[in-house]
TrEMBL record, chain A:
Species per Swiss-Prot/TrEMBL record: Marinibacterium profundimaris
Origin organism lineage: Bacteria, Pseudomonadati, Pseudomonadota, Alphaproteobacteria, Rhodobacterales
One GO BP annotation of this record: amino acid transport
Location of the Leucine-binding protein domain: 45-421
Record protein name field: Branched-chain amino acid ABC transporter substrate-binding protein
UniProt xrefs under PANTHER family: LEUCINE-SPECIFIC-BINDING PROTEIN (PTHR30483), PERIPLASMIC BINDING PROTEIN OF ABC TRANSPORTER FOR NATURAL AMINO ACIDS (PTHR30483:SF6)
Residues in the signal sequence: 1-35
This protein's record includes keyword Nucleotide-binding: no
InterPro entries: BCAA_transport, Leu-bd, Peripla_BP_I, TAT_signal
Record SUPFAM superfamilies: Periplasmic binding protein-like I
Keywords: Amino-acid transport, Signal, Transport
Gene3D superfamilies named among the record's database cross-references: 3.40.50.2300
Similarity comment text for this entry: Belongs to the leucine-binding protein family.
UniProtKB/TrEMBL annotation, chain B:
Kinase listed as a keyword: no
Protein's name in the database: ABC transporter permease
Superkingdom, taxonomy of origin: Bacteria
Record's keyword terms, sorted: Cell membrane, Membrane, Transmembrane, Transmembrane helix
Membrane topology label: Multi-pass membrane protein
InterPro entries (alphabetical): ABC_transp_permease, LivM-like
GO molecular function (one): branched-chain amino acid transmembrane transporter activity
Transmembrane segments: 12-29, 49-71, 91-116, 123-144, 201-221, 248-268, 288-313, 354-372
Amino acid sequence: MSRSNVTRRGVLKTGAVTGAGVALPTIFTASSAAAFTNEPTGSSVTLGFNVPQTGPYADEGADELRAYELAVEHLNGEGDGGMLSTFSSKALQGNGINGKKVEYVTGDTQTKSDAARASAKSMIEKDGAIMITGGSSSGVAIAVQGLCQEAGVIFMAGLTHSNDTTGKDKKANGFRHFFNGYMSGAALAPVLAANYGNDRKAYHLTADYTWGWTQQESIAAATEALGWETVNNVLTPLAATDFSSYIAPVLNSGADVLVLNHYGGNMVNSLTNAVQFGLRDKMVDGKQFEIVVPLYSRLMARGAGENVKGIFGSTNWHWSLTDEGSKAFVKSFGTKYGFPPSQAAHTCYVQTLLYADAVTRAGSFNPCAVEEALVGGDSSLPGISSEANRGFLFDGLGNGQTLYRADDHQCFKDVLVVRGKENPTSEFDLLEVVEVTPVAQVWYEPDHPMFAGGNLGECNPGA
Amino acid sequence: MFGLDKKDTSLLIIVAIITLLAPFILNPFPEGSAMAQFNAGYPDLMQRFVIFGIFAVGFNILFGLTGYLSFGHAAFLGVGSYACVWMFKLLGYNILPGILLSLVVSGIFALGIGYVSLRRSGIYFSILTLAFAQMSFALAYSVLSNPKFNLTNGETGLQVYTDDPQVLMGPNSPTVPNLFGLEMNATYKLELGPWLFQFNAGYYFCAIVMLLVVYLAIRIFRSPFGLMLRAVKSNQQRMGYTGLNTRPYTLAAFVISGMYAGLAGGLMASMDPLAGAERMQWTASGEVVLMTILGGAGTLIGPILGAGFIKYFENIFSKINDNVLHQWFAFMPDWMENAMVFIVHPFIGKGWHLTLGLLFMLVVIFLPGGLVEGGQKLMRWIRGDRRKKKAAEKAKSTTTTEPAE
């Protein structure tokens, strides 16, 4: 009896298949030959916000998502418009992008390359996202950037600080507003030398992936050029939560500076461990032991609490800046969420605006047209004589004059050197800006050895 | 047919029909409707369904037949992926050499690990395999990925660069994984009214491979070799006493199962040419155990169901965010809407693990045989119901034949 049942079902199914097969050619709707992947045809356009919602960078991811929601509001003409009014390009009118209402989908990168790519793929294939943005880890940024290049959509990198993102892993469809390890080194080293002297022995703890490697390389090179010595470099897994076993050897290494090439939850834990081990009260050869955190953020400072006081680092942007763009952004972010934005939120907000502006100026969502608008200009930064000094120059987004460089799709702007505040006036007022390093000091040529080996390739519009 | 009995043939045919029609079956809701959120018929997820189906079917050959619970199968998956991507880097984007090498490398890996681990059974075997898998993960994640000797590219994941040798690539070769020119990411989109169906070359390649290996698994299940493996599960000591050396059988099962995992890894890399170390982590090994138990260990179709179930949750539920929830409950008054969102919030988005855990508990408690047992119970209930109805009708007709005059 069961056999006859199964056969009947088989017959039914086969019938259905044949039926569908026969009917198929007759019901072809004229499938519009799209010029590029996910060409928006309706009255709205979908952006994909791919941020870490779990894992060591979850705090940054949550703040990035807030910034994206704010950016979408402003693009659609809701809220107070934020940086739309201070942006030097006036193409954006608050009526969506190219007249299409902005919608978005979100995903969790889990700070894992595999998961991030799966999430980005589903945004592209299922939700029809025309642009992917976000991420708080360079490993993820590079993996997703490669995916977007293959799929033919634009990738606007979120917080990614590795030299490789716009160095050996650069892609024509990928763009980065955030600064990088080399710039941190170039900005931070002179300040360190001025404060701690020229004969220091540095011990590096480094997150074991592309960002950690390239930042360590950059900081070591920049400080060694000023006379420092690098005693040791120890790689730590990104998933580590306890760094005691890495801190203990520092005590007997003869080093007098500890450089923590850690970010997010990693840095909070390693700094706390280091302070618990009494490193900051230690004297080595008559010199006070110091700790340096090259890439700093307010979220990390809040996580590490008391321990950040007096510690130097660099940052892409800080909410206490007083230019018009920063003030407008801090105001609308604070009105919506009740606290100031982090640097991760800032770069993500700015990237969304820059993308929307480029699409509007190009008059098309085609990735190749967007690339042309985003970096294709002929303007250049004043005061830097270089062949590579050309691209799209803009202002009013919080970092002063900024160049989106055509050769590697990297933004060039001033870098902030910051220090943990000794007497914070509020729970957000944790960092003070020590120096604004001018862009000329952090400039490098696209073929600099730390960035060499990559190839932008051709822009890929996909289908 | 194909040396299978009638029941297995019909099972295979049903699986074939379902996999080939998956783009229709998985996209039941029209584009743009509120329910479109639950559509799973897009290439990436469909590929995952069949690839993890292969992985779980292979795992089931070891776990379902011999009862040896390996907690390190993800290592073979990862090794397969790396092997495949290296072939892309060295030879070119044709996927055949890559998949062949992933089979070979994972087979060798499984032989080595199995040779050592199978000296113990039970929990000790599980721990040994777990230890090997974690060692492989650590190797891939950091030891073999320093700037000087970079075999795995660590956290970023191994990927193909334009300046890689790729000696077999001509000037006009496609620059994405392909099978003799058929690009794996080529997708034909069919718009039927409000519905959108996507037919992806890579998916159909994986689906055909899955049908082949499911056929192979059925043959193994029904063979004397399979019977021997079942005997190992029921009483290995007794087999030892009768003078039979079981280790070659268990080792063979381990290697076959490892090669299934390697094949799955190779296919994963062929669909998306990047191999990350996370796919070797113990959570990935645990996932395949969950898939097999959830679907029904020791059954033929169970692991595929389990794989589909878990991947669906991972990819669909994790993408529902508060915004979507607010849309769902928009018809309610504001305070009720917010209350509902507050209640549902922990179970969606990043909380999908929680939902999955609850469902897993329910399945294990009420359906120890997995989803397959659930299906069987349902069938029996429907059939029993129908039989009862028939019997009742008969009874009714016999009783009503007597006129009550």
